[in-house]
Structure formats: structure tokens, C-alpha cells
């Protein structure tokens, strides 16, 4: 299992719809920094997990060989520390209750918003780590990145997952905290060939980061990602 602050969390996705699994869930969660493996049946999941451990599981409710409830119950018995999220297109009250009784941590309606799913998984992982391991450090004040760079953390401790592009820009800014970082340096963090990169994409990404931070903490906690006139941007303390 993942040790806090070390490596990327591993996720196994159980979904029998090939397009939804591979092109949306697996690819999408990878873009949010997870190590993801997808399988199409309960049997394939059990075979994949022989000799391996995953931090988190995303399960569809309706499967060709078992129900998501029975899979969750088996996983909860075999891997108590695993975080389990269930997806379903029919989120009725009885289905929700059955999912919770089987050991599911979070029940989400399909189609799941990828950012919501990524944030749910990150929050679930943090809760599991705090439950099974003592705290090693006190919370820090101010806006910051998590140690692996995949989440933005508000002064109150709320988190927002970042895409790979958002992470690249925020890490470049965080490494030069309080100092302006040029637009060229930020573009280089995003693209191998800067000559083929549309510079307006950087401005859109900065706008998206500010919007994400505002939604996370509200307007009363100003996100200190500022324009440095004639240079680029600065992430201040």
C-alpha cells in the first residue's frame, strides 16, 4: 500500500464497458496522477490482484459475472485498507444502502465527472492514511502543493486534484516560490517543442487554476498566483 507522500496511488478500475473503462476512466485518472489498471470482469480483477495490492478500487455495480456489491464485499474482507468507490447509472436508495453494507466507501452516479472522481479518490486516500498511520507532520499554513504535486491544498486544508498540465505549471512556480517565472519557462514545463505550443494555452491554464482555487476556498482566501508584468507569473506565499 502507498506510504503517505511516496509515489503515486494505484487504482484498479472494474468496468465492463470497454470505451468507458479505457478511454475515459483509465486515461482520465492517469491524467490526474494515478497509476491505473482496468479490468472488465470480477474474475479478471481477482486474477490481477494475485500477489499485487492496489490503494483504491473503482467498481461498476452491474457486471457480467458478479455484482459490484459482492466484489466490494470480497475486497473489503481481503484488503481492509483499500478505498472503494462504486459507480452506477441507477443510484436508488436501496442500491446505495446495499453498497454501503458491502463495504463501499463512496457511491457515485454515472457518468462520473472525472474531476469529482479524482478528488473523491484523493480525499478517500487521505482519510485512509490518517486512519491507519499516525500523523508525521503538522498542517502547514498558506496555499501549497502536496508533496507529489498532484493536489493543490488551500490554507484550510481542502484539496483540489490537478491534471498533468496543471501540475507541471504549479511545480515550476512552486520551485521558484515568491520569484517570477518567465512565460518561456512555464511553456517549457508544458511542451517538449516550445515552437509548436500555442502561448494562449498557458493563459487558459492559469485561468483554470485560479478558477479551481476559487471554487476550493472561496473569494475570501485569495489564491496567490499573480501575473508578473513583462515576465510571466509568480506563486507567492
UniProtKB/TrEMBL annotation:
Pfam families: Response_reg, Trans_reg_C. InterPro entries: CheY-like_superfamily, OmpR/PhoB-type_DNA-bd, Sig_transdc_resp-reg_C-effctor, Sig_transdc_resp-reg_receiver, WalR-like, WH-like_DNA-bd_sf. Residues 135-237 form the OmpR/PhoB-type domain. GO terms for molecular function: phosphorelay response regulator activity; transcription cis-regulatory region binding. The modification 4-aspartylphosphate is found at residue 60. This is Response regulator transcription factor. GO terms for cellular component: cytosol; protein-DNA complex. Residues 135-237 bind DNA. The keyword Transcription applies. It comes from the Bacteria. GO terms for biological process: regulation of DNA-templated transcription. The keyword Transcription regulation applies. Residues 11-125 form the Response regulatory domain. It comes from Pseudoxanthomonas winnipegensis. Keywords: DNA-binding, Phosphoprotein, Transcription, Transcription regulation, Two-component regulatory system.
Amino acid at each position: 500500500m502507498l506510504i503517505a507522500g511516496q509515489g503515486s496511488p494505484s487504482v484498479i478500475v472494474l468496468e465492463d464497458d470497454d470505451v468507458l473503462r479505457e478511454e475515459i476512466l483509465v486515461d482520465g485518472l492517469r491524467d490526474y496522477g494515478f497509476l491505473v489498471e482496468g479490468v472488465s470482469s470480477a474474475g479478471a480483477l481477482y486474477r490481477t490482484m494475485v500477489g499485487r495490492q492496489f490503494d483504491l478500487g473503482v467498481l461498476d455495480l452491474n457486471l457480467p459475472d458478479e455484482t459490484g456489491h459482492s466484489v466490494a464485499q470480497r475486497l473489503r474482507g481481503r484488503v481492509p485498507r483499500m478505498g472503494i468507490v462504486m459507480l452506477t447509472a441507477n443510484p436508488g436508495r436501496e442500491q446505495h444502502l446495499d453498497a454501503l453494507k458491502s463495504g463501499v466507501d463512496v457511491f457515485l452516479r454515472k457518468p462520473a465527472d472525472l474531476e469529482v472522481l479524482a478528488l473523491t479518490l484523493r480525499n478517500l486516500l487521505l482519510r485512509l492514511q490518517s486512519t491507519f498511520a499516525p500523523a508525521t507532520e503538522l498542517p502547514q499554513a498558506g496555499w501549497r502543493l502536496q508533496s507529489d504535486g498532484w493536489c493543490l491544498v488551500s490554507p484550510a486544508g481542502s484539496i483540489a486534484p490537478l491534471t498533468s498540465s496543471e501540475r507541471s505549471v504549479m511545480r515550476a512556480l512552486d520551485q521558484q516560490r515568491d520569484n517570477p517565472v518567465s512565460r518561456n519557462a512555464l511553456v517549457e514545463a508544458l511542451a517538449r517543442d516550445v515552437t509548436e505550443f500555442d502561448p494562449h494555452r498557458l493563459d487558459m491554464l492559469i485561468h483554470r487554476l485560479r478558477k479551481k482555487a476559487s471554487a476550493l476556498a472561496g473569494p475570501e482566501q485569495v489564491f496567490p498566483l499573480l501575473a508578473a508584468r513583462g515576465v510571466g507569473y509568480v506563486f507567492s506565499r
